[in-house]
Specification:
Number of domains of chain B: 1
Strand order of the largest sheet of chain A: 1-2-3-5-4
Shape of chain A: globular
CATH architecture of chain A: 2-Layer Sandwich
CATH superfamily of chain B: STAS domain
Number of helices of chain B: 4
Number of strands of chain A: 5
Order of helices and strands of chain B: EEHEHEHHE
CATH topology of chain A: Heat Shock Protein 90
CATH superfamily of chain A: Histidine kinase-like ATPase, C-terminal domain
Largest sheet of chain B: 5 strands, mixed
CATH class of chain A: Alpha Beta
Low-confidence stretches of chain B: none
Shape of chain B: globular
Mean pLDDT of chain A: 93
Strand content of chain B: 35-45%
CATH class of chain B: Alpha Beta
Strand order of the largest sheet of chain B: 1-2-3-4-5
Radius of gyration of chain B: 12 Å
Distance between the termini of chain B: 21 Å
Largest sheet of chain A: 5 strands, antiparallel
CATH architecture of chain B: 2-Layer Sandwich
Structural class of chain B: alpha/beta
CATH topology of chain B: Transcription Regulator spoIIAA
Radius of gyration of chain A: 15 Å
Largest interface: A-B, 25 and 21 residues
Oligomer: heterodimer
Helix content of chain A: 25-40%
Structural class of chain A: alpha+beta
Protein backbone atom coordinates (compact mmCIF):
# COMPACT_ATOMS: atom_id res chain seq x y z
CA UNK A 1 0.00 0.00 0.00
CA UNK A 2 1.33 3.42 -0.90
CA UNK A 3 2.26 5.67 2.00
CA UNK A 4 0.46 8.90 1.15
CA UNK A 5 2.15 12.27 1.67
CA UNK A 6 -0.20 14.26 3.88
CA UNK A 7 1.90 17.41 4.07
CA UNK A 8 5.07 18.86 2.55
CA UNK A 9 7.35 21.87 2.90
CA UNK A 10 10.44 23.17 1.10
CA UNK A 11 13.20 25.49 2.28
CA UNK A 12 16.11 27.07 0.46
CA UNK A 13 18.79 29.12 2.21
CA UNK A 14 22.44 30.17 1.94
CA UNK A 15 25.02 27.87 3.50
CA UNK A 16 25.71 30.28 6.35
CA UNK A 17 26.22 28.97 9.84
CA UNK A 18 23.64 31.45 11.17
CA UNK A 19 21.04 29.34 9.30
CA UNK A 20 21.80 26.14 11.24
CA UNK A 21 19.47 27.13 14.09
CA UNK A 22 16.87 28.37 11.60
CA UNK A 23 16.90 25.08 9.64
CA UNK A 24 16.54 22.77 12.63
CA UNK A 25 13.82 24.96 14.19
CA UNK A 26 11.89 25.14 10.92
CA UNK A 27 11.89 21.35 10.49
CA UNK A 28 10.93 20.87 14.14
CA UNK A 29 8.04 23.33 13.70
CA UNK A 30 6.83 21.42 10.65
CA UNK A 31 6.96 18.15 12.61
CA UNK A 32 5.07 19.72 15.52
CA UNK A 33 1.75 19.52 13.64
CA UNK A 34 1.32 15.87 14.60
CA UNK A 35 2.30 16.44 18.23
CA UNK A 36 5.44 14.30 18.43
CA UNK A 37 7.17 13.51 21.72
CA UNK A 38 9.69 15.94 23.13
CA UNK A 39 12.51 13.47 22.53
CA UNK A 40 11.50 12.90 18.88
CA UNK A 41 11.63 16.67 18.30
CA UNK A 42 15.06 16.84 19.98
CA UNK A 43 16.28 13.97 17.74
CA UNK A 44 15.03 15.71 14.59
CA UNK A 45 16.61 19.04 15.53
CA UNK A 46 19.97 17.42 16.23
CA UNK A 47 20.01 15.30 13.05
CA UNK A 48 19.04 18.27 10.84
CA UNK A 49 21.70 20.41 12.51
CA UNK A 50 24.34 17.77 11.72
CA UNK A 51 23.36 17.46 8.06
CA UNK A 52 23.20 21.22 7.48
CA UNK A 53 26.52 21.73 9.30
CA UNK A 54 28.13 19.07 7.08
CA UNK A 55 26.98 20.92 3.96
CA UNK A 56 28.37 24.20 5.29
CA UNK A 57 31.66 22.88 6.72
CA UNK A 58 32.48 20.22 4.13
CA UNK A 59 30.21 20.61 1.08
CA UNK A 60 30.99 24.27 0.49
CA UNK A 61 34.33 24.50 2.29
CA UNK A 62 36.13 25.79 -0.79
CA UNK A 63 33.68 28.58 -1.72
CA UNK A 64 33.91 31.89 0.12
CA UNK A 65 30.84 33.57 -1.40
CA UNK A 66 28.04 31.76 0.37
CA UNK A 67 25.42 33.40 -1.85
CA UNK A 68 26.49 30.82 -4.43
CA UNK A 69 25.97 28.02 -1.92
CA UNK A 70 22.36 26.94 -1.58
CA UNK A 71 21.06 24.31 0.82
CA UNK A 72 17.65 22.81 0.10
CA UNK A 73 15.42 21.00 2.56
CA UNK A 74 12.29 19.11 1.58
CA UNK A 75 10.15 17.63 4.36
CA UNK A 76 7.34 15.21 3.81
CA UNK A 77 4.95 13.98 6.43
CA UNK A 78 3.55 10.59 5.48
CA UNK A 79 0.23 9.08 6.45
CA UNK A 80 2.09 6.49 8.52
CA UNK A 81 3.38 9.37 10.72
CA UNK A 82 6.87 9.12 9.31
CA UNK A 83 8.77 12.29 8.56
CA UNK A 84 11.10 12.25 5.55
CA UNK A 85 13.69 15.04 5.54
CA UNK A 86 15.84 15.56 2.47
CA UNK A 87 18.82 17.90 2.90
CA UNK A 88 20.65 18.73 -0.31
CA UNK A 89 23.66 20.82 -1.29
CA UNK A 90 25.45 21.49 -4.57
CA UNK A 91 28.87 21.31 -2.97
CA UNK A 92 32.00 19.30 -3.61
CA UNK A 93 30.47 15.92 -2.80
CA UNK A 94 31.86 13.01 -0.82
CA UNK A 95 34.46 10.73 -2.41
CA UNK A 96 34.04 7.79 -0.07
CA UNK A 97 30.66 7.76 1.69
CA UNK A 98 31.40 4.64 3.78
CA UNK A 99 34.55 6.22 5.13
CA UNK A 100 32.84 9.56 5.80
CA UNK A 101 30.17 7.77 7.83
CA UNK A 102 32.63 5.99 10.12
CA UNK A 103 32.49 7.25 13.72
CA UNK A 104 35.24 9.76 14.53
CA UNK A 105 36.28 10.11 10.88
CA UNK A 106 36.91 13.73 10.00
CA UNK A 107 38.85 15.61 7.35
CA UNK A 108 39.22 18.46 9.83
CA UNK A 109 42.80 19.16 10.84
CA UNK A 110 42.49 21.64 13.71
CA UNK A 111 40.95 19.06 16.02
CA UNK A 112 37.71 20.93 16.63
CA UNK A 113 35.35 18.65 14.69
CA UNK A 114 34.41 15.43 16.39
CA UNK A 115 33.76 13.34 13.28
CA UNK A 116 30.48 12.18 14.82
CA UNK A 117 27.99 13.95 12.54
CA UNK A 118 26.80 10.90 10.58
CA UNK A 119 26.87 8.72 13.70
CA UNK A 120 24.56 11.20 15.43
CA UNK A 121 22.20 11.23 12.42
CA UNK A 122 22.15 7.41 12.41
CA UNK A 123 21.54 7.22 16.16
CA UNK A 124 18.73 9.77 16.23
CA UNK A 125 16.84 8.73 13.10
CA UNK A 126 15.16 5.52 11.95
CA UNK A 127 16.76 5.67 8.55
CA UNK A 128 19.45 7.55 6.66
CA UNK A 129 20.43 7.52 3.01
CA UNK A 130 23.38 9.44 1.59
CA UNK A 131 23.75 10.10 -2.13
CA UNK A 132 26.75 12.04 -3.32
CA UNK A 133 28.58 12.84 -6.50
CA UNK A 134 31.99 14.47 -6.45
CA UNK A 135 31.74 17.99 -7.87
CA UNK A 136 27.93 17.87 -7.91
CA UNK A 137 26.79 17.73 -4.31
CA UNK A 138 25.33 15.59 -1.57
CA UNK A 139 21.81 14.65 -0.54
CA UNK A 140 21.12 13.22 2.89
CA UNK A 141 17.68 11.71 3.42
CA UNK A 142 16.61 11.18 7.01
CA UNK A 143 13.57 9.23 8.13
CA UNK A 144 12.01 9.60 11.55
CA UNK A 145 8.99 7.81 12.93
CA UNK A 146 7.00 10.33 14.92
CA UNK A 147 5.76 8.55 18.00
CA UNK A 148 2.88 10.97 18.17
CA UNK A 149 1.08 11.46 21.44
CA UNK B 1 24.60 31.25 24.00
CA UNK B 2 26.15 32.80 27.08
CA UNK B 3 29.33 31.94 28.92
CA UNK B 4 30.27 33.17 32.37
CA UNK B 5 33.12 32.04 34.53
CA UNK B 6 34.19 32.09 38.16
CA UNK B 7 37.35 31.20 40.03
CA UNK B 8 37.53 29.40 43.34
CA UNK B 9 40.13 27.55 45.42
CA UNK B 10 39.26 24.43 43.40
CA UNK B 11 40.08 25.98 40.04
CA UNK B 12 38.00 27.72 37.41
CA UNK B 13 34.41 27.03 36.39
CA UNK B 14 32.75 28.16 33.16
CA UNK B 15 28.98 28.03 32.74
CA UNK B 16 27.54 27.61 29.25
CA UNK B 17 23.88 28.54 28.71
CA UNK B 18 21.89 28.07 25.53
CA UNK B 19 22.50 26.20 22.28
CA UNK B 20 25.85 24.78 21.19
CA UNK B 21 26.14 24.26 17.44
CA UNK B 22 28.79 24.87 14.78
CA UNK B 23 27.70 28.52 14.47
CA UNK B 24 28.50 29.48 18.04
CA UNK B 25 31.12 26.83 18.90
CA UNK B 26 33.90 29.16 17.71
CA UNK B 27 32.84 31.90 20.12
CA UNK B 28 32.63 29.34 22.94
CA UNK B 29 36.03 27.91 22.03
CA UNK B 30 37.68 31.34 22.14
CA UNK B 31 36.05 32.25 25.45
CA UNK B 32 36.97 28.96 27.12
CA UNK B 33 40.53 28.91 25.75
CA UNK B 34 41.08 32.42 27.03
CA UNK B 35 39.99 31.32 30.53
CA UNK B 36 42.25 28.25 30.39
CA UNK B 37 45.26 30.26 29.14
CA UNK B 38 44.73 33.12 31.59
CA UNK B 39 44.06 31.13 34.74
CA UNK B 40 45.88 27.88 34.04
CA UNK B 41 43.61 26.20 36.62
CA UNK B 42 44.52 22.86 38.17
CA UNK B 43 41.01 21.71 37.37
CA UNK B 44 38.69 23.35 34.86
CA UNK B 45 34.99 22.74 35.39
CA UNK B 46 32.62 23.16 32.49
CA UNK B 47 29.05 23.49 33.73
CA UNK B 48 26.64 22.25 31.06
CA UNK B 49 23.42 22.43 33.08
CA UNK B 50 22.11 25.32 30.98
CA UNK B 51 22.74 23.70 27.59
CA UNK B 52 19.37 23.48 25.83
CA UNK B 53 20.68 22.08 22.52
CA UNK B 54 23.92 20.36 21.61
CA UNK B 55 25.04 18.69 18.39
CA UNK B 56 28.38 17.12 17.54
CA UNK B 57 29.99 20.58 17.43
CA UNK B 58 29.54 20.53 21.21
CA UNK B 59 31.42 17.24 21.31
CA UNK B 60 34.25 18.79 19.31
CA UNK B 61 34.23 21.72 21.72
CA UNK B 62 34.58 19.44 24.76
CA UNK B 63 37.22 17.21 23.08
CA UNK B 64 39.27 20.26 22.08
CA UNK B 65 39.12 21.74 25.59
CA UNK B 66 40.10 18.42 27.12
CA UNK B 67 43.19 18.49 24.90
CA UNK B 68 44.00 22.10 25.90
CA UNK B 69 43.68 21.23 29.58
CA UNK B 70 45.88 18.16 29.18
CA UNK B 71 48.54 20.27 27.49
CA UNK B 72 48.94 22.46 30.58
CA UNK B 73 48.55 19.65 33.10
CA UNK B 74 45.01 20.65 34.01
CA UNK B 75 41.97 18.36 34.33
CA UNK B 76 38.68 19.03 32.55
CA UNK B 77 35.60 18.15 34.60
CA UNK B 78 32.07 18.36 33.22
CA UNK B 79 29.54 19.60 35.73
CA UNK B 80 25.79 18.86 35.80
CA UNK B 81 25.37 18.15 32.08
CA UNK B 82 21.83 18.73 30.79
CA UNK B 83 20.00 15.91 29.04
CA UNK B 84 20.82 17.46 25.64
CA UNK B 85 24.54 17.56 26.47
CA UNK B 86 24.63 14.15 28.10
CA UNK B 87 23.03 12.23 25.26
CA UNK B 88 25.57 13.70 22.87
CA UNK B 89 28.46 12.79 25.19
CA UNK B 90 27.18 9.25 25.58
CA UNK B 91 26.90 8.68 21.80
CA UNK B 92 30.65 9.25 21.55
CA UNK B 93 31.37 7.33 24.77
CA UNK B 94 32.86 10.50 26.23
CA UNK B 95 30.80 10.14 29.39
CA UNK B 96 33.16 7.23 30.13
CA UNK B 97 36.43 9.05 29.57
CA UNK B 98 35.75 12.49 31.04
CA UNK B 99 35.06 13.04 34.71
CA UNK B 100 31.46 14.14 35.24
CA UNK B 101 30.20 15.65 38.49
CA UNK B 102 26.51 15.85 39.20
CA UNK B 103 24.48 17.61 41.86
CA UNK B 104 27.15 20.29 42.31
Amino acid sequence: MRDKTVNMMKLEFFAKSANEAFARSAVASFAAQCDPSVSAVADIKTAVSEAVTNSIVHGYSDISDKSECPIYIVCKLLESKRLIIKIKDRGRGIEDIDKAMQPLFTTDTDGERSGMGFTVMQSFCDGIKVCSKVGKGTTVTLEKRLDCR
Amino acid sequence: MEIRSEVSDFGATAYIRGEIDHHNAKEAREALDSIIARMRPQSFRLDLSGVSFCDSSGLGLVMGRMRKCNEIGSTLILQNPSEAALRMLSIAGMDKIIKIERGV
